[in-house]
Structure formats: C-alpha cells, structure tokens
Design goal:
Order of helices and strands: HH
Largest sheet: none
Oligomer: single chain
Number of strands: 0
Length: about 60
C-alpha cells in the first residue's frame, strides 16, 4: 500500500501543473486517481473481512 500512497501523492502534486484545457490529460489523471482510490477501498474491505473472521474465530 506504500506504493499506492506514493502514486496518489505524486498524482495529486502533478495535478497542479496539468493543463486544465487538455481534456485528455485531465481525464487520464482522474482515471488514475479513481483507480488508486478503488484499490484502497478494496484493500480496506479485505482487511475488514479478515478482522471479522478473526474475531468470530476467537469467540
């Protein structure tokens, strides 16, 4: 997840210099941000599922 965090940080930093008039460039950056956030959501969901399984196993 460190890689994802670093990728997101770089994208957000570089977004400041994106030509907002270039729709393809903006769309590409937004797609990458969406991809990273979706991946984070998936990881958090998997971690939550594992925690629930562990807690049920401890009962």
């Amino acid at each position: 997840m460190n890689r994802l965090t670093e990728d997101l940080r770089i994208l957000l930093t570089n977004f400041k210099t994106v030509d907002k008039e270039n729709g393809e460039e903006v769309e590409g950056i937004l797609f990458e941000i969406h991809r990273i956030i979706t991946t984070f959501e998936w990881h958090f969901s998997e971690i939550s599922d594992l925690n629930i399984k562990i807690l049920k196993g401890l009962k």
